[in-house]
Amino acid sequence: MKYTGIQTQKRVNNFKSTLLLVLFPCIILLLVWIFFQVLYGQFDHSYNYPNTANANTMFLEALPWVIGICLIWFLIAYFANTTIINLSTGSHPLERRDNKRVYNLVENLCIASNMSMPKINIIDDDSLNAFASGINKKTFTVTLSRGIINKLNDQELEGVIAHELTHIRNRDVKLLIVSIVFVGIFSFLTQMLFRSLLYGGHRRSSNNKGGGAVAVIIALVLAVVGYCITIMMRFAISRKREYMADAGSAEMTKNPLALASALRKISADSRIEAVTQKDVAQLFIDNPLKKGIAGLFSTHPPIEKRIKILEQF
């Protein structure tokens, strides 16, 4: 697989990040508008025509609240992503005195690639996996499991670290975090509305307030639609990045077979016990939830195909 170039990939990912920042709010506003059209834009019984003016008025009144809530959600998730990821993966800082070998490998690759040294975290799990995270130089982090540190030789571990550094260098991590934040909005809304319908249905029916149930059902359907749309958009940007990072690692280390060997070992045992969320799982070099339901809608290309491409370099 031909590598398209660092600067080109940076520009492409920066463009995608900007596009996502524009498209996701537009999708949210469109679905909110449809909600009011369906709920309040029904036929006026007096004149027998759709009361779209009433629906548009309701939409404009709700618009500042929708934008405000989404903006607050985005800002909190965007700037708190490091803490959220650490809590979701059980990772914590790895000190230089605890593992000089890892620090030497990372520093040598950063010096050779003219990159700033990222933070290094560790997950206390004997399985083999790794990921990169962060949105800027202050938060860029390479996280390694204890298993991948102990079970890979220097060349293999160097290939994995180079893969993660390529994600940072290409701005993949920033793009993924933006997509995760917006998908999380629809995921939260879907769960909240479903629980409202499930646990509040009896109370509404006993009070003969069927209109409330209808509103919740409409909102739930639209939230599911929004979730599916954003998931498909996320999948569209997720798979190719792994191929690009593999190619970047081969370019950085000049040893593609070492990464191929590492991927073969990782694929045999990549399950990190602390990871239960699909959104966080897509950050890893190999999806730690691939053996479960997440495998049906994988954000990663088949690892066998990645190995085959690396062996052809």
Give an account of the 3D structure.
It is built from eleven helices and four strands, in the order H-H-H-E-H-E-E-E-H-H-H-H-H-H-H. It has 313 residues and is mostly helical. The protein has one domain (1-313). A four-stranded mixed β-sheet has the order 1-2-4-3, sandwiched between helices. Helix 1 (6-40) packs antiparallel against helix 8 and helix 6 (154-169) crosses helix 9. Residues 43-49, 202-209 and 292-296 have low confidence and may be disordered.
Output the keywords.
single chain, 313 residues, 11 helices, elongated
Secondary structure elements and pairings:
Layout: H1 6-40, H2 52-79, H3 81-89, E1 91-93, H4 100-113, E2 119-123, E3 130-133, E4 141-145, H5 146-151, H6 154-169, H7 172-206, H8 210-253, H9 256-268, H10 278-281, H11 303-311
Parallel strand pairs: 2-4
Antiparallel strand pairs: 1-2, 3-4
Helix pairs in contact: 1-2, 1-7, 1-8, 2-7, 4-6, 6-8, 6-9, 7-8, 9-11
Please give the count of helices: 11
Q: What is the CA-based Rg, rounded?
A: 23 Å
> How many separate domains make up the residues?
1
List segments where confidence is low: pLDDT < 50 over at least 5 consecutive residues.
Answer: 43-49, 202-209, 292-296
- Taking strands numbered 1, 2, ... along the chain, how are they ordered across the largest sheet? 1-2-4-3
- Most strands sheet: 4 strands, mixed
Any idea what the shape is? Answer: elongated
Structural class: mainly alpha
Helix content bin: 55-70%
Distance between the termini: 8 Å
Count of DSSP E strands? 4
What is the ordering of alpha helices and beta strands?
HHHEHEEEHHHHHHH
Overall pLDDT confidence: 80
Which range does the strand content fall in? 5-15%
